[in-house]
Each structure stands twice: as structure tokens, then as C-alpha cells.
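Reader question, answered in our methods column.
A reader sent in the components of a multi-part assembly and asked whether the whole thing could be modeled at once rather than chain by chain. We filled in our standard form and ran it. Here is what they sent:
COMPLEX SIZE: two components
ENTRIES:
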Amino acid sequence: MNKTRCLILLLGSFGAWSAAKAQDVVLVANRSVQISEITDSDLRAIFTGKKTRFADGSHALPVTLKGGAAHEVFLKNHLGEGPEEFRAQWRKLVFTGQGAMPMSFASESALIEYVAATPGAVGYASRISSQDGVKSLASVK
Amino acid sequence: MSRRLCLFVLVCACAGSLHAQDIAGIAVHGFVSQGFLFSSNNNYLSMKSSDGSPQWTDAVVDITDPISENLRAGIQLRMYQLGEFGGSNVQVDWASGDYRVNDHFGIRAGKVKTVWGLFNDSQDVDPAFLWTLLPQGSYSIDHKSFYLAHVGGDVYGEIPLGKRAGTLHYVAYGGQATIDLNDGYIQTFAELGLVFTNSLGGETYGGDLQWETPLKGLVLGSSGNMLAANGTAPAGTFHSPAYLVPSMYGQFSRGRVYLAGEYDRIPINATLTIGSSVIPFVADGRSWFAMGSYRLSKMVQVGSYYSHYVNKGADTTQPVNYSKDWVVSGRYDFNPYFYCKVEGHFLHGTALGYYTSTNPNGLATNSKMLAAKIGFSF
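And here is the structure of the entire assembly that came back:
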């Protein structure tokens, strides 16, 4: 019985860990984007307006969701901030004339459709399929 | 009343469904804020704040056109009222073209916000801040027209130093800065006997160097701004030779925590000439602040700062030569568009923010103030 309980606990812990680990988003990009991986540092710089290019020098066009779980997970895991701080940073750039707000979408399907159709676009979603017409990027810490 | 109605209609016309309007790539953003100020003693920032004053309104509309991958153009218009300052006329906040060759080099030209210290270029972007009033020793809201923007050009970019050394961000600029007729300096000159009917201004140039350190969230930086100002009024002239305004700052932002500090110096050595009288307009302003904030939840953020200003060129024991402000602040975001702020100030000294026209009976040394704002942004 004790062994059974241990096994259940072990499997439960593994499940919880997997769930936690699985609480990340898929980074998606237009198929014209040549890179296959991107550092969190570059992601932060692109999604906060500091950089406009990928590591290979090609143009990067960040695309975001308007809100929701995937948006918050992306911001927390890859930018290290919450939606309010993210919004405040972009408001400063926009209202000082130093940047243009990234395109944002109410749904993941609309975001994926835009990324698929726009050269250089990079965004995120909770999941993608091979029919979506985008490529996924690996995240490097 | 009609002015506020105009402001309301202007922003509502652009707000639409409270989403930024995007027509073929052109983006329209804006914000409106309405403030209220009550002070226990004295009238602050030319408002009748001792009775409670709502003369604190801002409305901004911004249009940006991303013409190509590298080129963007835009314009931002503003109407504001701050006590006796501002008015019904629409001002151009900034209007510029921005060409970014790559991440290391870009050019911006037109009327451009001036990068100096932590917040100079963004000090009037109310929706971006927790604070209702930024530290007035460094970012005096009644003098902002001279420091906030210049007509000229900037070059900017970043210099990566490697994974272990972080990144340098630089801005260098040159152009002309102007003191608007609606600025607090014009009111001060009038109280000294010189009434201007045309704006004053002069050359400005400077730069900012910011180090994004390898420690995630930590940024250190330094700015220098050279400013000169001259003007002629019917009864006399104002002359300020070029002076350097340096700033050193640091900020740390990670997760729910934000910390920042800054030290600035504003040494003014100017003269007002009225007839045969030459009146010195001199101050060696030294200011610093330390601030911190914490996000309690998605909707609630709280914080506090201490702001310290002294005029080192005069007797710093006299209240007229210092201003020390303890501040506690809270912000509630109803949703991504609507917000409100409440802030308490415990102000000692009368060096900043006071005018004879609204305080004809003199000033008490200390004052407590309650500032509140409600706003929306899209």
C-alpha cells in the first residue's frame, strides 16, 4: 500500500511538474524568418521596442495578444513582467513619439493568421498546428 | 465649461470603441485625464488648491504612420489646463519623422521630446505612471515647456557590449527649445515686472547614455543638456547664457517591484533687464529623489517617493530656497483603458510651485496636499 501511495505521489508530482513546465507558450514566426531559435534577451528587446531586428539582421515585427492567459504567460516567462508594466512601457514609447504600438489581437487564431501572412512577424500562442502556416521558434535562456 | 466640452468631444471622436484606430497601418492613440488638487495651506501650481481645484485637465491625440520597415512619421496634439497655465489652444507635443537605419543607429527630426534623466521625455504621459505628480524638483510640471521638447534632431541607437556586459543605449540631440507663453517661468517673470508677449527660447544640445546592465532589470544612466534662453518683451529683455543641466539616475524593475533614484542639477544664471534695472535671476538648483512601488494585484499599484530640492546659491535654511516632499501614491486600473490615482503630499518649503498671483498673502512653510486623477487611454 505504501509503495502504491508513493507511486501515486510520484506520478502526481511528475504530472504537476509537467503541467507547470507546459505552462509556456509557443513562439511563432512568419515562415520568411530565417532564425530557428531566439534568446529571451532578444525577445525582450524586440517586444519592448528596443530592437527591430532578429540576430541575423532581418526585420522583426512583434505581434501580441490583447490579453488572456497566453499573453500573461508569455510576458511573465519571456519578458519578466506583467501586462500592466508592458502596457506602460509601450504607452511611454507611443506618447513620446519613440515607437509604434505592436499590432495586437483579441484571439490566438487572428494572431496566427496575421503572423502567417506578414513577413518578419513574430508572436506567441498556446498551441499551433502544421496547418497554421507559421513556424515555431525555440526559446533560449 | 465649453473648453472641457471641446476636450471631451475631441477625444471621444478619436476613442471610438476605446481601441486604437488602425486604418491601413495608421494608428491613432490618445488619452484624457482630469485631476483634482487640494492643499491644506497655500495655493499650488497656480490652482486655487486651498479650496480644492479641478483646473487640471489633459487631452492628447496621437497619429502615427509606419511608412516602411525603417521609416515612421507622426504627430501628437495636446490641450491642457493647469491652473492659470495652458488654455484652449491646441499645441503640438511632437511632430517628427523617424528613420531607423538599424538597431545601432537611427535619426529622428522635427519637434522631438528631449531625453534627459529617467522621465523628462515622458513626464506628461499620465497613463504610463503610478504617480499623479512626478518629483517636482526634477520634473516641475509648471516649467516643462522649456525642458520637454526641442525642434531639431536626434540620433539614437544601441551598442551591445556582450552577454556579460549588457547594452549601452545612446541619444544625442541638438536644436531649439522654447519657453511657451503658458509656462510658469513667464508667470514668474511677469511677477518680477517683465511681461512677455512672445515666446522665449534658445539653442539646446545634449545627450543621454544609458547602460542596461547584465543584472536583469537594472539600468544606470547619465544625461547632460545644454540650454540657453533669450527673449525681448515690450518693457525689457531676458538673457540666460548656456548652462549645463546634468542628471544621473538608476532604476531597477523586476516583477512587482520598481525602484528608482536620480540626482539633477539646474544652475540658472540669467538676468532680467527692465529699463535701466538689471535683476539677477539666479538659482543653483540641486535635486534628488528616491522612489519605490509595488504591484499588489493586476489592478492595484502602490508606491512612495521622497523628493528633495535646494537652491544652493542662496540661504538653504530659508523655506523659499528648499522644497522637500514625502509622497504616498496609489493607482487602480479598472481595465486596460480606465484608471484612477490618489496621492498624498507632505510638502516642506516653498521653493517650487508657488506664485504670488495665487498667494497674495504670503506662504506657509508646510502644506499637505491631496492629488487625484481619473483618466482613460487607448
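What stands out: The CA atoms of residues 26 and 128 of chain A lie 7 Å apart. Chain A is about 45% helix and 20% strand.
Send us your own complexes using the same form.
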